Amino acid sequence: MLGRVSLLACVLTGCDALRALVIDHYPQEYASEVSATPTATTLGESTRHAWPDGIPAFTGNDSARQHVAVHLEPALTGLREPTDLAFFPGSNTEGFVAEKGGGLHRFDIDKDTLAPLTQIEVLTQSEQGLLGLALHPDFSDNGRFYIHASLGKNGTPVSEISAWQYTEGKAQKQGIVLDLAQPYGNHNAGQLAFGPDGMLYIAFGDGGWRGDPHGNGQNGQTWLGSILRIDVNHRTQSHAYTIPSDNPWLGDSRIADEIWAMGLRNPWKFSFAPDGRMVVADVGQNAWEEVSLVQAKDNLGWNTKEGSHCFIEGSNCSSAGLVEPIFEYDRDEGKSITGGYVATNDSIASIRDHYVFADFVSGRLWAIPLPAERGGPLMDAKALGQWPFLPSTFGQSADGTLYVAGFGEGTVYRIEPE
User: Fold this and answer.
1) Cα–Cα distance between 210 and 99 in angstroms, integer?
2) What SS3 state is found at 157?
3) 55 confidence band (pLDDT: 50, 70, 90)
4) Which residues of 182-213 are buried (b: 16+ CB within 10 A; e: fewer)?
5) C-alpha distances in angstroms, 123 versus 127, 182, 189, 366?
6) Across all residues in the chain, what is the average pLDDT?
7) Burial level of 322, CB count in 10 A (0-12/13-18/19+)?
8) Backbone φ, ψ for residue 291 (5° rounding)
9) Which of 151, 33, 129 shows the shortest CA–CA distance to 83?
10) Is 310 exposed, middle or buried (0-12, 13-18, 19+ CB in 10 A)?
11) What pTM, to 2 d.p., does this model score?
């Protein structure tokens, strides 16, 4: 049966003929693999929301994994296709949330309120849209933040990174940091994040279509298929940023100076662990989704490899110089990985210091410990259940509480102990 889920899976991961037909026109409303609606139940004097019909489920490989009992409590409602969530520094309740269609809102979880800040005229076909936002480390003092949006410029789709100012409840665009022409409407990635070093990291996918037809993943001359690292606190006469002096390929004519890591397909979310290491979730094509620890000058291998496997099945590809993932899963478990955060508090003790992430199509949530070093065996995952929603992004408040957003119903859930 080729229903909405199968169609979405092809769009995100690369079914042959169908993808070519729908790449720029797939539906904007999706159904998860498990269909259900949360219902309210009263426990003592409080009301909680629970999934009916035995949800969450622990099926397939999850049935043999350690199960972690969690509860998803609706914390914020009324969104339309949320794509990113950022709490204000030091806040457990307030921040910004972005919607695929270009809406940017200030939220207050205590009040379950959304205050519209701006509506950006973005392209929305396929995986285009308002894709990412990042608050400056000194946001509390300077009100600066950054946005990644898909725009049309002179008839060309581009990914634009822009600087914004938040003052007295209003958001104003300050200027363009950089932009990048996109050959297709998918694999635009979108994540922005400031690292512990104060630099802005920007994730771009390979630009789209299936199999990376332009070879962008292994082409250091393009930003496509790469993670950039730039300094937005300083600028030059020609750029709204400077290139950090310790960027790994600075001065190498084969690779752009802004590139920090390459060989990615569609890194839909990355974050920094408490020890400063970058954790990247990279969406695969036909077979494997992966989680990797990424360092300066890394090559993640796309499109030579998909996960730890040769992309061309049956080939004898070389892994020399390529970084192996710390976790991967196949199409029996999901079809499009959504990266999250490392749990940093004891609210759910069994996953403290674990990286929590999900699959957008199957609705499964997992947690894995991070290895002390790379290059060892793949990590074992703990299962947090399969839920009837499309987890599109995660958020983390100042106290370490984790949140996950449902794309279809426009709800942000707080991940709580059961």
Assistant:
1) 26
2) strand
3) confident
4) bbbbbbbbbbbbbeeeebbbbbbbbbbbbebe
5) 9, 12, 14, 32
6) 90
7) middle
8) -120, 130
9) 129
10) middle
11) 0.90
The residue among 289, 286, 275, 243 whose CA lies nearest residue 369 is: 275
Q: Which of 49-58, 84-93, 208-217 is least confident?
A: 49-58
CATH of domain 4-417: 2.120.10.30
E-assigned strands of 204-326?
A: 226-230, 259-262, 270-272, 278-282, 288-294, 298-299, 305-306, 309-310
Tokens of 363: 């609705």
Radius of gyration, CA atoms only, the chain? 20
Percent of the chain with pLDDT over 70: 87
CA 89 to chain centre: 20
Q: Using DSSP, state whether 151 is helix, strand or coil.
A: strand
- Going by DSSP bridges, is the β-strand pair 288-294/192-194 parallel, antiparallel, or unpaired? unpaired
CB 86 within 8 A of CB 96: yes
Of 411, 393, 275, nearest to 342 by C-alpha is 275
Tell which residue, 361, 353, 416, 337, has the closest CA to residue 384.
Answer: 416
Percent of the chain with pLDDT over 90: 86
SS3 201: strand
The CA angle 347-363-72, to the nearest 5 degrees, is 30
In this structure, what is the dihedral angle of CA atoms 92, 116, 128, 224, given to the nearest 10 degrees? -50
Tokens linked to 152:
């049309």
Instruction: For 299-315, write each residue's pLDDT tens digit.
Output: 999 999 999 999 998 89
Judged by DSSP in three states, 303 sits in coil
Say if residue 254 is exposed, middle or buried (CB neighbours under 10 Å; 0-12, 13-18, 19+). Answer: exposed
Give the C-alpha separation, 338 to 189, whole Å: 11
CB of 389 closer than 8 Å to CB of 396: no
User: What CA–CA distance (Å, rounded) separates 237 from 92?
Assistant: 39
pLDDT at 15: 38
Return the beta strands (E) in 77-199 as ranges: 82-87, 94-99, 103-108, 113-119, 130-135, 144-153, 156-167, 170-181, 192-194
